[in-house]
Design a protein that fits this description.
This protein is α/β, with parallel strands linked by helices and about 150 residues long. The chain has one domain (about 10-150): CBS-domain, CATH 3.10.580. The chain is about 40% helix and about 20% strand. The chain is built from 8 helices and 7 strands. It has helices at about 10-15, 15-20, 35-45, 65-70, 85, 100-110, 130-135, 140-150, and strands at about 20-25, 30, 50, 60-65, 95, 115-120, 120-130. The chain has a 4-stranded mixed sheet. Strands 2-3-4 form a 3-stranded mixed sheet. Strand 3 and strand 4 form a beta hairpin. Helix 6 (about 100-110) packs parallel to helix 8. This is Hypoxic response protein 1. Pfam families: CBS.
């Protein structure tokens, strides 16, 4: 079995979500048009953006696929649709102090590729599958890929 990305295997337990996330995650508001959301995704080379309220509290996530399936494919104009129109349910998130094992479990269990990081009820960053993979063993990466990408 190979070692995690960190030099000391014990770091796997001590490393937190805050340590591995992209800090200062870009987010959009519920009132932003899907055109603005899509433009931000293009500029930042992202496939998803968190949706936050006026207090920077997470209230959803929009993916590029959501925009295509829930707006464009239905014949709607992205300039006229708002993030709130396609943002559904309560998104999965992780506390900033959660360890890497918890991050792995959350992403595997819910088959998600991007996980918002919350601290004091505010969105402070995002963890991508690439961020997580840097802190896993080869075996853990294989298990993660199988859990997230395998068809149910």
């Amino acid at each position: 079995m190979s070692e995690p990305g960190a030099s000391d295997p014990k770091e796997l337990i001590m490393t937190t979500a805050k340590d591995i996330m992209h800090p200062g995650a870009q987010w959009v508001t519920k009132d932003d048009s899907l055109l603005r959301v899509a433009e931000l995704m293009k500029q930042m080379d992202l496939g998803a953006l968190p949706v936050a309220d006026e207090n920077e509290r997470l209230c959803g996530i929009i993916t590029d696929r959501d925009i295509v399936v829930k707006c464009v494919a239905r014949g709607h104009n992205v300039a006229d649709c708002r993030a709130a129109d396609i943002c559904e349910g309560t998104p999965r998130w992780i506390d900033a102090n959660a360890d890497v094992e918890e991050v792995l479990h959350e992403m595997e269990q819910h088959r998600i590729k991007r996980l918002p990081v919350i601290e004091k009820k505010r969105l402070i960053g995002m963890i991508s599958e690439a961020d997580l993979a840097q802190h896993l063993t080869d075996d853990q990466i294989a298990e993660f890929a199988e859990a997230v990408y395998a068809r149910p």
